[in-house]
Amino acid sequence: MSILNEVARRRTFAIISHPDAGKTTLTEKLLMYAGAIHIAGSVKARKASRHATSDWMEIEKQRGISVASSVMQMEYRDCIINLLDTPGHQDFSEDTYRVLTAVDAALMVIDAANGVEAQTLRLLEVCRARNTPIVTFVNKMDREVREPLDLIDEIERTLGMSTIPFTWPVGMGKSFHGVCDLKNNCMRVFQPGSDRIDSKNEVIVQFDDPQIQQRFGADLSSALQAIDLIKGASPAFDHEAFLAGKQTPVFFGSAINNFGVREILDALVDLAPPPESRNAIQREVLPDEKRFTGMVFKIQANMNLAHRDRIAFVRVCSGHFKRGMNLKVARNGKDIRTSTVVSFLSQRRDILEEAYPGDIIGIPNHGTLQLGDTLTEGEVLQFTGLPFFAPEIFRTVEISDPLRSKQLKLGLTQLGEEGAIQVFRPHLGNMLLLGAVGTLQFEVVTHRLQHEYAVAARIAPAKYQLARWITCDDPRELQRFIEANAHRIAYDAVDAPTFLASFGAELSVAEDNWPAIRFHKLREHA
Ligand code: GDP
Questions:
Q1: Closest atom of ligand 1 to CA, residue 44
Q2: Does 338 appear as a known binding residue?
């Protein structure tokens, strides 16, 4: 098949939510419908087996959160759907942000009892900044939840985009009767139970039938009223506006009961965009170009402690990946072996023969690949857009056994390259500084240093409160700034200079005194 055909049938999306909204449950059901796995519960099992194989996942187990993100692939109708899971806990949001740069759409899961929650909001900011199209699933309608009109209103206000309900719930909780399909003017009747895949929902088309009216009572009439209201008040669905991240189609359902799940898959296939062109510093890259290009958006180290291996997660951006082909790291021209590249088909890691734009491939390596790297067949190219956020919390790290300091440095460098934490080397002195967006990152790092590098490290408070990457059109001016502020300068993993301040006021003073210097809260890998 031509590359163009393969591109057209790819859908790559991330699933985002606040913890406990039902992301794992929905993922499980999506995989079940798409025929990638047959038993519900496998996604949870996957979580569990990861605990067993990887020690540091103990942290995840202890806290009941998902630390690492992962990738699944499934086939539905004629499409290949790549689903990227994201960690829900806010302390890992950096990882999540980067995952969002590798997808073409997002599926947002909302708990109908809680509405839009804090963590969802932060993720949505990233989607909005990139105009990522979002499909919304309002979950848990089988519970006593908030009024749907309220929810819709809240989503619209907090997302800053119009909500276009595709379905509308009839009742909720114990009297949840199903959803009305606004396009086809029918109602699918809810049937509790989680193991039905094949059985079809009963569909009702005659709302004025007295028997139907009696059966669903006031719940049906108020749903129909609400639908009238919505149809009168909200704009029609506009595909372009959806693709631009200005409208979100909304679906109601209950993931645990398999209700409303198929509609989500259909929406992804029918509405979500196939892979599109991507920006590199040098040029725009089209997905159906003949030559392969890809971007490393995530690195997971030490999946197997005995081998100290790392897997780089690469989003294919153009061309056709074939096992064994010659690829180069565009940053330094180094060759990459592609004979052992793996796919992420459901929960198994298989050797991969080929892949197309939108697919995610895993490349085992020993440190050759870094976050943000571009892979090509030889062309010098650097994709833009992989974000690094200025850390908000800083710590120093101490060890009791000085003989382990080499190990400490190795561990921190590798964890830094993986993006688990940001490691800064001060301009003066040699005490490494750690920066994070959430405090839990420090716990993960201490735990992993102990278990993977046999280093007992103690994390101690540092005097800094904020960091800004600094750039200047005039390199000499930048150098002058660095010399004048030597005790407040450190370098990150790619040696980008950073200004550190203990108080917000120090930053304002520096900004006032050095007008030519730019201070950045976000560094896009370049
Ligand atoms: P995650 O943290 O977002 O991955 O959430 P989970 O999928 O683990 O779900 C959190 C809890 O909500 C679990 O106890 C699920 O069984 C429950 N849950 C998920 N979907 C539904 C639903 O549709 N209805 C009800 N009543 N509970 C649900």
A1: 8
A2: no
